[in-house]
Known about the structure:
112 residues; globular; DUF2853; DUF2853 family protein; Jann4075-like_sf
Amino acid sequence: MSKRDELIAKYAADLKDKCGVNADMDLLTKVTIGCGPSIYNADSSTVSGSDDSELATVKNNFLIKKLGLKDSADLDKGIQAVMDKYGQSNRNKYRAVVYYLLTKHFGKESAY
């Protein structure tokens, strides 16, 4: 099993255990591949739910540029809903899992 396959399995377990979501493995794989090499770096593989600049990066680089959503208050609400679902007390919020949940939240599976 490749390193990426191991990470995808870990992300699927995170979705199930921490978010109560049974992952669409095809979509999760595409989202993970879309994250590129950031998933292999300890710092960039996670998202800090309490860091406003990090959340702004998620909003601008993922929601607006990747998913093609228009900038609005709904994006901030969506990010907050995903952070709440993942659990604010959960220290390690994997980027691929956050992006997967955001893709599902906004119904933008077609972007992949």
